[in-house]
Amino acid sequence: MGGASSVGSDPDALAPDVFEHVVDVSHLRKRYRDVDAVRDVSFTVRRGEIFGLLGPNGAGKTTTVECLQGLRKPDGGEVNVLGFDPRSQGAAMRRRVGSQLQEAALPDHIKVWEALELFSTLMRTGTDWRILMDQWGLSPQRNVRFHNLSGGQRQRLFVALALVNGPEVVFLDEMTTGLDPAARRTAWELIRAIRDGGATVVLVTHFMDEAERLCDRLAVVEAGRVVAVSSPQELIATHAGGVHVVFTCPECDLSWLERTPGVLSVRVRGSRVEVDGEGPVLVRVAHDLVEHGLEPADLHLEEPRLEDAYLHLTGHIIKE
User: Are residues 75 and 129 in the same domain?
Assistant: First the structure.
């Protein structure tokens, strides 16, 4: 396993400060009774990047990050975070990582400042929670109780709590689930700000647009296994190649279109027609459409997206 190793037998021993890989996972496995939640997961996370775990609910993403944080004991494989083995050195490791869990919640009546002060006291850190409160735009809500915060304000608070110990690695598990579009965009800004502030981010998500826009690299997780690891751009180039021609044509018989040179497949979804092809397929499709008396005004090329690569890798799309 490359990049880092365990640091002796003392659970509280400090790890070296510099690793090319701040997270190293090799053949991780976790089983719950008759269910293999994590079958064979391997990946590395580089210092200073946003690394995504992308897959549907039940793919094993949350179980994986819980094993990384020492919250669950793996049944097999090797896990290393900042040079620590989470199984035997979890307490020491957690002093240097931050976490926003999928089921994160606080008591309804706790105030923003009380939560931050409490976490700061528990972490025994020198970080001034008042600075974090200001940095994450929570000062106006200082005395607001948790149950009165909006979804976006709660996410800001969870991020501030995850950062109260000045972590080197931050785990964010489905941070934007349930947020409206505006709050999701705000959350994306927060995630970038965490990375820009010097921390490494491990982001669990099932949102394609989120993974494509935020992640420097990501692992596609399917049924407890990693099926690909790369940057979103490289995944798209490798697994979603070709040209996508799109147009609308209500109630059209397009059975002939697959015989057009360069056309690889034709999908009809209601009135929307999607053509996968290669070479100058747009010109050829346009020509044949005109030849058949069809002139769709919205005929255009669509750039391949991460969803196309995911579909090619797994055979299905994620239902959000």
Answer: yes
